[in-house]
Each structure stands twice: as C-alpha cells, then as structure tokens.
Amino acid sequence: xxxxxxxxxxxxxxxxxxxxxxxxxxxxxxxxxxxxxxxxxxxxxxxxxxxxxxxxxxxxxxxxxxxxxxxxxxxxxxxxxxxxxxxxxxxxxxxxxxxxxxxxxxxxxxxxxxxxxxxxxxxxxxxxxxx
Length: 131
Known about the structure:
The chain has helices at 2-13, 30-51, 80-83, 91-103; strands spanning 16-23, 55-62, 66-73, 107-112, 118-125. By secondary structure, the protein is of the alpha+beta class. Strands 1-2-3-5-4 form a five-stranded mixed sheet, with helices on one face. α2 (30-51) packs antiparallel against α4. The longest helix is centred in the first third of the chain and has 22 residues, at 30-51. It is globular, with a radius of gyration of 14 Å. The relative contact order is 0.21.
C-alpha cells in the first residue's frame, strides 16, 4: 500500500519521491501497518504543505524487532523549537505523530534547521505486533 501511495503522491504533487525499502517483507499487525502508513502520509503532507521541497526520500527498514521509517526532504527546513511552541498552530501534526509513535512503544526524531531540509524518523518495535 505504501509503494502505491508514494507513486500516487509523486504523480499528484509533482515532487520527486525516492523510495527505499530494506529488510524482510512480512505482514505486521494491522494496527501497526495502518499506523506506519498514516505516519508516513502525515510526514509527506507536511513536506507538501510547508517544505517547498523538490525531492523527498522515504525509507522503510523492517528488522526482526524494529521498524525504522524515515522521511527526508530537501526543503527549506524550519525552527523546531518554534514549531513546537504551545501557541503554534503548525505543531498539531507533529505532536499527534509523536503521540501515535509513543502509543506503539516507539520514538520519533526530527532533524531540521532553516535552509537545511527536514528528516523525520520513526522507530517502532515489532515485538508482539506481527500479523
């Protein structure tokens, strides 16, 4: 489903999308699959709405005990502290993504700076969540 979404995203928004899938392809628990899809989808929506990027790389690495997903763009980046400020309306998506990852026992990292692009990383444990 993610591969098809990335193709559709590229066609619809005209943004160069570089997918990279590594590791073992296996079915995961439906809740985990849906959560991963939604996290990547939200990260890509943020790229489209805010980054002014030309290219985005989406990596998915499935290991026996953990899944790592990375969405990295070449856009203009942003000030993370400012975006996460309590009064910032733009922070809602980032906060909800972080909460979703934490509910799955994982963690989310954001690396960004003005004029440096943005990288959003999700690491989610697979243990007990196989399909």
